[in-house]
Amino acid sequence: MIKVLTVLLLLTGSIFAQTVDELIKTAYEKNPKLKSIEERLKAIKERAIFESSLTDPMFSISVNDIQFDAPFKRDIEPMQTVIFSVAQLIPYKGKLSLKKNIQLKIYDKTYYKLLSEGLKIEYQIKVLSYEYWFLKESLKIIDEYKKVVQEVINISDTLYSVGKATQSDVLNSHIYLTELIEEEIYIKNRMNVIKARLEKLLNSKVDEIEVKLPIPREITNLKLLKEKIIQENPELKAIEKEIEKNEVQLKLARKDYYPDFKPFLSYAYRYNFNDYISFGVSFNLPVWKKKRQDKKVLEVEYIKLSNEKLYRDKLNELFSLLEESFFECKNAYETYILLDQTLLKQALESFSSVISEYKVGKRDMLTVLNSLKKIIGVEKMKLKEVFLWNKYYAQIERITGKSLRGSSYED
72 with 142, same domain? Predict the structure, then answer.
């Protein structure tokens, strides 16, 4: 019956555990910042339609030649009219399509900002989840070695009872067990902090996190990763769209050298006289082009040049971050191999030798505990290198525009 209950508890725990992919999916569905950008995209779509439409026509009504001695009498002379007019501003050809195109470039830029923000949130979720994994695995190590320490305590108690160990040996072993318990308490509290931070990102409750991290592996394709940055990084794409928008704005600014037209049609009503219809057109004259149109063109050219330099700066920043993450992954991989294949074996052999010598009185308890600490330290360092490798690899995924669900870049 106890076994059945244990299995049921394990199954219940697995039902509520969320994988990293599921956490990311929830963030995309509920994160307020991402939803805000999505709403902004909808607004920009509507703005594009607005900018490509003509302004509303203007309707006016006027009464001409009001006689002060008889203001309401309208049959005194032919100049007395009531005029109804309709006028429509028509921009120079191509202006409306350019204005719409500007909004479409803003839409594209905002879309890439959405992708960039999504990747940043993905990265934050991954790092927090990976740290959660590191802490959870550390708890397993502590729990395992608490049992080892308890066995050491039992040995020291037995040796003390027959006069082959000192009281300080017994006290030191108990102190170290207390230190492990203290570390266990800190880790559990830290895990709760991570859950709270994840809940903020997800805007949703997080019960349990299921994370399976791959061990560090070598990556060598730095050149390919740089090409991926140029092709896929949404921050660069957003700047590219801003430059494209500047190019359209430049075309629009040059259109201002040409006049906009405002045709009008009016109907004049005259009491006891013939009515008449008038038609005409007005347009602006760019006579102040040196202080207006020329300056507008120069302004846009400078802004475009500024964004081109910004693109180069962002590319250099991303390349630098890529190289940093790449070599951190390399360092984590090489350190992990050293810990796993050499140091851990040495630490285990050393502890086995020391505990055997302690039983026959050739070693003291401090030596035993230091040897045990060495094993625990190596085990935790291995976990840390797994965490660091996956953390920096997640950074590479972010800056190359790739999520966990994407394809692999390794050779």
Answer: no
